[in-house]
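hey so i finaly got around to running the thing on Biotin-protein ligase N-terminal domain-containing protein from Gimesia aquarii. pasting the sequence first so u can double check i didnt mess up the copy paste, my clipboard has been acting weird all day
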Amino acid sequence: MSRVPLCLLRICLVLITGFTSASTWADDVPSSQTTKPVRVAIYDFPKSGSTGPEHLMKFLTPTYGFQSTIVSPDEIRDGALQNYDVLICPGGSGSRQAKELKEEGRAAVRKFVRNGGGYVGICAGAYLASTHYTWSLGVINARVWDRAHWARGKNQVSISLTPSGREVLSKSKEKYDIYYANGPLLVPDNQPNLPGYEVLAKYDTEVARNGAPQHAMVDTHAIIRSKFGAGRVICFSPHAEMKNGPKSLVASGVYWASNAE
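ok and heres what it spat out for the 3d tokens, dont ask me to read them lol
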């Protein structure tokens, strides 16, 4: 009999012990021989303005099947990603993240993913992953809708998982309340050298402050996934890693990106 993956058993424990609002996730556990922890690199640097690394380090731990380390732009440029399964680029500023990486670091990230590594972008990290800006990594075929009103505000919003999202992220629940803080409103781009992405969640409600038009955010894509070369890419526009989560969505996304099935 094949063994349940240690990582997914521990994610179930996250749910049971109250990390998220879901009460059970037993039906989300596939069969696998994988028992090694997922090695996670979390990108950060001084004055990044991000609390994401702190939140991520609290639950992407060995107890739950992850081994997480903060990595700097210098370390990425020096080849540190070869020691990891997944890179997380969290919130903050996508352009600042790109600037700190420099072209050499951005090339190192693309090479890591192209060769089979996983990329998880959260808010700023999703902007960074997109094909929209000159400084973007271009690892997922997505652009930003209503870019002129990117600073549309911060608040709790509601998202709905698509059938694919429920398969990948949570079979136990379809709708979630989640914190939004100026993340990208993701829509498909048409770059011919990249595959299209799959939608895992859409926005049901919106934030429309600072001159942002009403109804522009509803039905845009909150969570998406794709491939880049041999690697996997998943992007979260909102902040599932924050105190009120749902952290299980990030944990499941990281596990999927690691290609550990």
